Amino acid sequence: MRTIEMVQIVEENMAEAGCYCLRSKPNSTGYINKNKWLVERFNEGLKYVKIMENNKPAGFIEYAPIEYCSRAVYGENYLVIHCLWVNITGKGYATKLIEQCIQEAKERNKAGVIVVTNPDTSWTPSKEIFMKNNFIKVDEAPYGFELLVYKLKHAVSPYFPNNWDERLESFNDLTIVRTPQCPFIDISTDNIVKAANHLGISLEIIDLKTREELLRISPTPYGVYGVIYKNKLISFHRLTVHSAMKRLKELV
């Protein structure tokens, strides 16, 4: 008989449960930093919930109040979904996780739930599952980003910043802008560092410390990772060393 269980990750069960991503490499820097980051965010209202099938992880969702979220988006009184992923498809697990977030938004008297999507990468949740669950698109940004919302009451819609070109103009040197929100960012950074070293390009890494910083300088709505060189966005997701070198060579 199949057993389904929702498990919320909290500080007390972190050592045993841990985050979903990179769990096969619990000693990696990315995994360790992610778990530390989660513990530091729980008192801000961030929630991390895994769905378990027969005591094995089947997927997870991570969301936070907009005033503490890790996406470059403006709005008031919303919950923001950072991540949604399921490894067992066709059983409605993604919908169950979305419903979990919506129910909490209702209980906390929020205006609704929002999510940032992008069809060009798996680093953001898939748009289709949210449209099936009655989210609507309210804004878009360069590089394929879209902002979806599920409203629970009449409220001003959330929106993206509109000065993306201006943000890029301040980055001429090769720069990585990042936070520990995603455990794969450490691997992504290493690949850019290797590519830069091979090409003899100096590199600066900016670790975003506050949401205000993220809102002000993030090159995309994704918020937690961006690579910029000569005022051009190189990537907002992980590249292989080869792919990074190819993109950098185009601007050298």
UniProtKB/TrEMBL annotation:
Gene3D superfamilies: 3.40.630.30. Residues 1-163 form the N-acetyltransferase domain. PROSITE patterns: GNAT. Transmembrane segments: none annotated. CDD domains: NAT_SF. InterPro entries: Acyl_CoA_acyltransferase (IPR016181), GNAT_dom (IPR000182). It holds the Pfam family Acetyltransf_1. This is GNAT family acetyltransferase. It comes from Metabacillus niabensis. The lineage of its organism: Bacteria, Bacillati, Bacillota, Bacilli, Bacillales.
